[in-house]
Amino acid sequence: MIGMLSSEVTAMVTARYGLGRATNPPVYAARGELGRIWRLDTEGGTWAVKEALVPVLEADAAADVAFQLAVAATGVPLPSPVRTTDGQVTVRGPDAVLRVYEWVDLDPAAPDPSAADLGDLLARLHRVRHPARGPVGEWFAAPLGPARWTALAAKAAKANAEWAGPLDEHLPELIALDALVRPPDPAKVRTCHRDLNADNVRRATGGHLVVLDWENSGPAQPEREFAALLWEVGDAAPAAARAYGGPPPEREHFSTAIAVQGHLLEFYGTRALDPTSPAEDRDRATARLDAMLARPLTEKAIAELRDS
């Protein structure tokens, strides 16, 4: 059951961000892994209020906004972030951290962006040489490791989870794949989107593509983000690669995709097996596990992508 933004929280948001009086109650619009999105109509316009489902530091939010503004300055369409009247990106409500963007009307009937669209957009983002704030985090750089893989498989088997079988089937390949991960090269690291896919690139009602969900942006190697995109688009990888340009990825460039796959499977597995998690979260996690384990990244898949 999805709650509502209370009238008190709505009043706090409109006042802190200088949005004007709310003309309608907030309307639930969407949900991602990092938060919920509410549409808020006020005297000053229409806004997207993001309610974080994970801890958010103001310094991190300010860093991703700086990257968004640098990208927007090059002409890449994205929802404009809004700061509070005293220059902050986030405000803290009673139960969550919130932030605001200008609202963008999306066309729900429009087709997903093509692989070429995604490759072209990623190339445009990588031409923005925005410096990284700190090193690449473990989620994007470190393999899960045999102990955590086997522990996850054991928990799934003990719970008789429906995804336990597919995980056990692929477990040797997943453990072996970790050996391909190489540490990032600090000299090549800069700020990247880190979550560019068809879910986060949508077509607005005006017909143009809009890049969404920048809260996951941060330090990464561009060539590794490119390799991750090729895995994301699958059989359409050649079209994405042509649109992106540049040399084909090397095996070590899939290090980020390997690390993220491992951490995501562990994250979703832990959430799916946690009886204290909301049913909505457990169902979402199970669906993600089913999809990922139906098409896991493997050494064979990497070889095929590099040969395509």
From TrEMBL:
Query: Residues in domain Aminoglycoside phosphotransferase?
Result: 32-244
Q: Which residues form a coiled coil?
A: none
Which Pfam families does the record associate with it?
APH (PF01636)
Q: What is this protein called?
A: Aminoglycoside phosphotransferase domain-containing protein
Q: Organism source for this protein?
A: Asanoa iriomotensis
